[in-house]
Design brief:
Elements lengths: L1 H22 L9 E6 L2 E4 L1 H7 L4 E5 L1 E8 L5 E8 L3 E6 L4 E6 L2 E7 L8 E14 L2 E16 L5 E5 L5 E6 L4 H9 L3
Antiparallel strand pairs: 1-4, 2-3, 3-6, 4-5, 5-8, 6-7, 8-9, 9-10, 10-11, 10-12
Length: 188
C-alpha cells in the first residue's frame, strides 16, 4: 500500500511539473521566410544611354535568394539576400562595345522599426559587385544607411541608400567609373 501511495505521489508530482512545462509556449523566434526570384531581363539603360550618348543595353541573369528574419514577437529584424550566380552583360550595339561581369554578392540588412515604410536600416554589401575591366572592379564590403520606401507583395522591404558608404573595405575603383564605362562601350 505504501508503494502505491509513493507511486501516486510521484505521478501527481510528474504531472504537475510536466503539465506546467507543457502548458507554456516555447520562446522561439518566428521562423525565417525564404524566397527565390529569377533575375532575367534585357532592357535599354536610360541612365547609361544618356551619359554615354548612344544606346546602352543591360542583360541580367541569375537568381536572388532572400531570407527574412523575425524576433520572438514576429517583428522583421533582418534580411539576407544572396546572388550566387548573378551576372550582367552591358552592350552598345551601335559601337560594338560591351563587357560582362559576374556579381556573386551577398546583402545583409538590419531593420529598425520592423521594416515599416519610413524607418531606417543598415545595408551591408559583400562580394564582387561590378567589374568593368582588369583593375577596374568594385569588390569587398560596403555599409550604407538606408530608409525603407515600400514593401513587395511578399513583405520584403524596398529601401534606398545613399551614394556614399558609411564604411568600406576592399578594392573599389576611385576614378570616374561612368566615363570609363562609356569609354569601354564606345567600341574597340
Amino acid at each position: 500500500m505504501g508503494r502505491r501511495i509513493g507511486l501516486l505521489v510521484s505521478v501527481v508530482a510528474l504531472l504537475t511539473l510536466g503539465g506546467g512545462l507543457l502548458g507554456t509556449a516555447p520562446a522561439w523566434a518566428t521562423p525565417p521566410k525564404h524566397f527565390q526570384f529569377p533575375l532575367s531581363s534585357s532592357a535599354r539603360d536610360d541612365f547609361l544611354s544618356d551619359a554615354c550618348g548612344f544606346d546602352v543595353f543591360v542583360v541580367t541573369t541569375g537568381n536572388r535568394n532572400v531570407t527574412l528574419f523575425y524576433d520572438q514577437g514576429g517583428t522583421l529584424t533582418g534580411e539576407v539576400d544572396t546572388y550566387p550566380a548573378f551576372a550582367f552583360f552591358v552592350t552598345a550595339p551601335s559601337t560594338g562595345g560591351s563587357f560582362r561581369s559576374s556579381s556573386p554578392a551577398a546583402v545583409q540588412v538590419r531593420y529598425t522599426g520592423g521594416g515599416a515604410v519610413g524607418t531606417t536600416a543598415v545595408v551591408s554589401v559583400s562580394g564582387l559587385q561590378f567589374r568593368v575591366q582588369h583593375g577596374v572592379i568594385f569588390t569587398g564590403r560596403q555599409v550604407f544607411d538606408a530608409v525603407v520606401t515600400g514593401q513587395s507583395p511578399e513583405g520584403i522591404p524596398d529601401y534606398e541608400h545613399g551614394d556614399d558608404p558609411i564604411f568600406q573595405s576592399g578594392n573599389f575603383f576611385t576614378g570616374d567609373e561612368l566615363a570609363l564605362v562609356c569609354a569601354v562601350l564606345s567600341g574597340p
